[in-house]
Inverse folding.
């Protein structure tokens, strides 16, 4: 991954954190590493543990950032969430998966869209 792409992703995660906190989420962790990969944001909101996947893009090409959360990515997110819940002894908590898309548009600046309960695992 190039330095520019990493910087864009980090900026997107920062904007996403600001947006979810403004909506009342309490961020518990950012960039949480598991053996399956990395969770972008782990938060608590409305009594649930929320796993937030952040997708950042420049411009509106490729169908928008949220389109990149494929079923394969969802499966990995569920595996990472299961790991987080077990390590923090939160197996009995309500869980939700949100997606935040951050699009840096030349004519409008960053546009942040929060998609609550974007998908549900087959637990």
């Amino acid at each position: 991954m190039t330095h520019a792409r990493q910087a864009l992703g980090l900026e997107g995660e920062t904007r996403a954190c600001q947006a979810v906190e403004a909506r009342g989420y309490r961020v518990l962790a950012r960039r949480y590493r598991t053996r399956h990969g990395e969770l972008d944001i782990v938060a608590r909101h409305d009594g649930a543990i929320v796993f937030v996947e952040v997708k950042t893009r420049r411009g509106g090409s490729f169908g928008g950032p949220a389109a990149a959360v494929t079923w394969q990515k969802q499966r990995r997110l569920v595996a990472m969430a299961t790991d987080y819940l077990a390590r923090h002894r939160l197996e009995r908590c309500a869980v939700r998966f949100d997606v935040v898309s951050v699009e840096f548009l030349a004519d409008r600046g960053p546009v942040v869209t929060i998609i609550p309960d974007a998908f549900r695992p087959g637990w």
Remarks:
- The chain has one domain: 3-119.
- The longest strand covers residues 94-105.
- Helices lie at 3-22, 71-87.
